[in-house]
Amino acid sequence: MKRIILVRHGESAWNSVRRLQGQADIGLSARGEAQATALRATIEAMRPDHVIASDLLRARHTAALLGYPHAQLSPALREIDVGDWTGRAIGDLMAEDQDAYLGWRAGTYAPRGGERWQEFRDRVTAGLGKAVSIPGERLLVVCHGGVIRALLDGLLGLPPKRIIPVGPASVTVLADKPGGMRLETFNFSPDGPVFDAPD
């Protein structure tokens, strides 16, 4: 059996003001650094055998703060590309076209120049599939909220409209067991769950 430990990066500078990042390479806020540091003991107790991370700065920095500055980097684990919405305030998007924004959250709408949900899900699921073949029982993946939601869709059949946003510096654990993948932990944070996390 292999456990896949999924960690969303800590709060970024744009998360703190509720701006969509997509694949923009935005760093952690001071709060995000503190969140990642607070999660370190939890991750150390899980004793990962191998660590991979999205190559975007906020994920790399989170991995380093968790104690893994030399994590293997994977562009396949980047956040969904939000195209023309990159850098836009969520409040403005909701005011302009609430249906479009809610459709995007549900995986049924893609902004101009952005990835379609199915393409994104297939990209990250394939990227994780390569990493799962690495020897060891516990794989740590430091990535993004959208990536975690896409993996839950691709591996467990949980569509995005059925999953709340993943909290910053939170842990979700999947176990690859005989009979299929199983969700063991979702959205765990030392400070308690976050139900309204920014995208």
Automatic annotation (TrEMBL):
InterPro entries with a match to the protein in the record: His_Pase_superF_clade-1, His_PPase_superfam, PG/BPGM_mutase_AS, PGM_Phosphatase
SMART domains named in the record: PGAM (SM00855)
Signal peptide per UniProt: none
Keywords from the named record: Glycolysis, Isomerase, Plasmid
Record-listed substrate binding positions: R8, H9, G10, E11, S12, A13, W14, N15, R58
PANTHER family tied to this protein: BROAD-SPECIFICITY PHOSPHATASE YOR283W-RELATED, HISTIDINE PHOSPHATASE FAMILY PROTEIN-RELATED
Protein name, UniProt field: Phosphatase
